[in-house]
Amino acid sequence: MLSNPLIKRPSNNIWVLVAQTSSFGIFLPLVGSVLFYLFFPDWRWPNEPFHSLIETLGGVIAISVAGLLLFLNNTKYVRKHHFWVGCGLISMGLLDIFHAGVPVGNTFVWFHSVATFLGGFFLGLIWLENKEWIPEDFKSAFFSIGGISILGASVFLVFPELEPAMLKNGTFTFSARALNILGGIGFLVASAWLAREVSLKREWEDYFLLIHCLLFGSAGILFELSELWDGPWWWWHFLRLLAYAAVFGFALKNYQEILAELKNFNEQLNIKIKERTNQLEEATLENELILQSAGEGIYGLDAEGHTTFTNQAAEKMLGYTLEEMRSQSQHTLIHHTHADGTPYPRHECPIFAAIEDGSVHRVSNEVFWRKDGTSFPVDYTSTPIVQNGEVTGAVVIFKDVAEQKKQEEKLRIAKDEAERANRAKSLFLANMSHEIRTPMNAVLGFSQVLLRKKHLDKETIDLVKTIDSSGKNLLSLINEILDISKIEAGKMELNLAAFDLNELIDNIDSLFELRCRQKKLKWVVKKSFSSSLVVHGDESKLRQVLVNLLGNAIKFTESGEVVFTVSVTEENNYRFDIIDTGSGIPAKAQLKIYDAFQQDEEGAKKGGTGLGLAISKKQLELMGSDLHLKSEINEGAHFYFTIELQPSSEEIKREDLKHHNILHLASGSNIKALVVDDIEENRRVLSILLSDVGIEVIEAVDGKEGVEKAIEHKPDIVFMDMRMPVMRGEEAGKQIQKHLGKDNVKIVVITASAFDKRRDYYLEMGFDEYIAKPFRSEQVFNCLNELLDVEFVYEMKNDDLELETVNNLDLSNLSIPGDLCKELIK
Fold first, then answer.
1. What is the pTM of this model?
2. Please, are residues 335 and 349 in contact by the beta-carbon 8 Å criterion?
3. Are 205 and 250 in contact (CB under 8 A)?
4. Res 8: pLDDT
5. Are 103 and 166 spatial neighbours (Cβ–Cβ below 8 Å)?
6. How far apart are CA 315 and CA 368, in angstroms?
């Protein structure tokens, strides 16, 4: 048993302990017995009431101590050896009480002797304290032993003849002496175990039990030397009472330890309670501060929907105080009506749904009603309060979203304005493109018509070529502006197809070699491949990026070289490097170099729109790459990027170059074409181009006239502008197909619109082909060839003519030696 540190332990000196226990357990019994034999040998005191009092008192003490052990069972105060102590005390205490209650006689001695024997027997078993079969719970064993003791005593009270003889002629029989001596020996055996425990652990309870066992052991042995009512008889009764007092001391010491520990525990508990109370008060105060400081309105409801608490924000927004809202139905007070004035039934209210179904409800676009009768828009969350698995109410957190609604409305208006502005910009660009492309179509168209003429002198041809080249440059500037607009609108898309990367690099090589030669710059091209390399990607955008970067490199380099390198960095990844020896780009300018319409002073002098790099960067991003720059003043510039191009097995679509050299329709061909356009110059360009090759041309100035002339002349093919007065091209084309039959006439869309869906859009409408203005003559001839299977007569180039002439020579009739003939043919 663990003793309280406030209570002193028995002495640590083993000799002091031996002296103490010997005094009580050995010398005191012997001295008393010797004194009675020497000085009072004939003294007798037959006093049954006093005897009964002593025995009853001892029995009550024994049972009380056993009860204490049972009460403290499974606590730190009780160890396994206390099981045997309790069994002995119960049996001995009950039988001593029976012994005290019967008259002097055989049963009187029998109960006393059996009590001593059973007490010694159970206490002697204390040496078995560590056996596993000793129960953890003493209750069943204690009650069983107590019940058997009472039952046995009752049987002998009813059937005394079953008892062995305990008295004969006023003296104790052998049976009586044997039972008492055996019981005494059992107590002494227990004393040996307890003496060992006291010497090792110095526990008070073991000390008192040791004295108890020594006294009971001595009393049991002294029974042999006594007679009924004589001095030794009363002396060992006194020793038994003293032994019970020792057991009571054992119980009292435990009780003191328990009280001391309870006191200490209560003190610690009070300290913890005070700490927890302080923490709770601090937490409550903190929670109250948080609740009252929250910007959102917060209030609580009980299970019936009555308000239990609010915060300051809720009171301010609603206009009610807590006292005015307390115990009031929240729904009736602030949530009774929809924003449109219609009643809001409580069973439809999400706030009360949280109480009913135990789930969280988040609601927007509802209103709460103030005390003054006005409403305001709110977003709120209703969260159930759950205690012991039962919903006892809800907490509602809400916020006034009136200002948020105003801001949302402002944003909506701003967004609408931005969308209108964007639509206006797109419309402006489309109109600008149409208005510029339309005259450009005439400029470039007539230049192509003139270039097809055979009677022009060289000077005139050069002038026409200059017009054609300038027109193309102007068209390129327009396309750049449209490209940046498409990028800003997110409408730029990739046009993926198979192309020959090696051929693309060779074409660029040819283009820029001439430019470098004109500026007396060294032109260097390096590539890690030399044969055909068919890949899948957007050739047009890649070409545009390279043309922009290389064009800038040549434009800003006055001397030195421009190096163009293409290398394979890893599988299907190609790196493009453009390095020049120009003036370089200042660090400050590099920060804005990719912004649209940004040019430094030198760039402004060189000309251009300032869109090339902006477009190139966006196009590379669209292709999954990024444009990088390294540059220092007077050290030139180094642009580079890496792009993934997967290998392709698709067939490459190539332009049919034979349509560049058309003279006229083949003999026997009879084609009738209708040209519908509201711009006279555009009609005239196309009409001259078609007429020059022998095609009959009918013209119409708008869609309505186009339908009428199509019905009248039944053309084989119609070239239809889309944006015209009176009737647009889409409607005119559909009506022509309706009257003539879709299989009997081909309709080619020719438009200058910049943001149309182009080819796929018009093909989905049922038209046959699409050409964008300004167009090239070969595009028109290609349509005729593909849609009508028209055959043309082509101008023969000199090298073709010479080859054909040599190949067609018949040398068989000439008198030329055979070997020479073979050489000539070869």
1. 0.42
2. yes
3. yes
4. 42
5. no
6. 12
The token duo for 85 is 């102590």
Return the HEC string of 506-545: HHHHHHHHHHHHHCCCEEEEEECCCCCCEEEECHHHHHHH
**Half-sphere exposure in the Cβ direction for 323 (13 Å, CA):** 0
Rg (CA), the chain: 60
Task: Decide if 666 contacts 793 (C-beta within 8 A).
Answer: yes
| DSSP reduced 3-state for 162 | helix
CATH of domain 294-400: 3.30.450.20
Query: What pLDDT score was predicted for residue 606?
Result: 47
Residues lower than pLDDT 70 in the chain:
1-30, 32-33, 75-78, 133, 201-205, 222-227, 246, 249-251, 422-423, 425-438, 440-446, 448-449, 451-452, 454, 466, 468-492, 596-610, 653-661, 753-758, 794-826
Instruction: Produce one character per residue of 238-269: b if its CB has 16 or more CB atoms within 10 Å, e if not.
Output: bbbbbbbbbbbbbbebbeebbeebeeeeeeee
DSSP-assigned states of every residue in 322-349: HHHHBTSBHHHHHSSB-TTS-B--GGG-
Report the pLDDT value the prediction gives residue 749, as an integer from 0 to 100.
92
- Architecture of 493-647 per CATH? 2-Layer Sandwich (3.30)
Please name every residue paired with 420 in a beta bridge, in sequence order, or none if there are none: none
Of 61, 59, 164, 182, nearest to 121 by C-alpha is 182
Tell me which amino acid residue 709 is: K
Phi, psi for residue 10 in degrees, rounded to 5 = -60, 160
Q: Which CATH class is domain 660-799?
A: alpha beta
745 near 715, Cβ under 8 Å? yes
Q: Which amino acid is at 789?
A: D
Residue 401 neighbours by CB distance under 10 Å: 18
Delimit the domains of the chain by residue range.
14-38+46-257, 294-400, 493-647, 660-799
- Could you give the angle at which helices 82-101 and 139-158 cross, rounded to 10 degrees? 20
Rounded Cα gap, residues 729 and 24, in angstroms: 133
* Secondary structure E strands in 582-738: 628-631, 637-644, 646-647, 662-665, 672-676, 696-700, 717-720
State the virtual CA torsion across 464, 465, 471, 477 in degrees, nearest 10: -160
